[in-house]
Amino acid sequence: MNTEAELISAVCKNKDISTLLADNVDEIFTSHRDIWDGLKSYYYKFKAVPEAGVLIEKFKDFEVVETKAETGYYLVEVLQSHAKEAQGIERNRILSLASKSEISMMIPVVFLILPISILFALWPSLSNLNLYSGS
Q1: Dihedral (C-alpha) 18, 22, 26, 28: value to the nearest 10 degrees?
Q2: What are phi and psi of 70, to 5 degrees?
Q3: 2, 66 in Cβ contact below 8 A?
Q4: C-alpha–C-alpha distance, residues 128 and 84, integer Å
Q5: What Å distances lie between residue 116 and 87, 102, 120, 122, CA to CA?
Q6: What is the pLDDT of residues 52-102, one digit of tens each?
Q7: Distance between CA atoms of 6 and 25, rounded to whole angstroms?
Q8: Domains of the chain by residue range
Q9: Maximum C-alpha span of the chain
Q10: Is the distance from CB of 53 to CB of 26 less than 8 angstroms?
Q11: pTM of the prediction?
């Protein structure tokens, strides 16, 4: 369910746009940005929050969602969904960096430490073989 549609529906139902205008939440609308801009322009022009039907007429892809809570509740939901999305993006970025670091840390192990440890393990055997073959 789209939390932005719930928020816009709650604004139309509760006629409470002041919470959103006071917090300047323009950046949180991504999928319904055009509808939010239309709602704001209607509010600034007529000094009233439009009915949901007005938005449906102007934006054919907008579907009203039944809301039962205050506008602030849906604002919190939108902010939480954006925070989760941002955390997921940051997590993926960090995992990508970690995998690159892991590979770069393996290079000295494979080409320096591993050959030296193999040499230390095989040296006594090779030196004994050379003693027996040389006599």
Answers
A1: -90
A2: -75, 165
A3: no
A4: 64
A5: 43, 21, 6, 10
A6: 999 999 999 999 999 999 989 999 999 999 999 999 999 999 999 988 888
A7: 15
A8: 3-109
A9: 108
A10: no
A11: 0.70
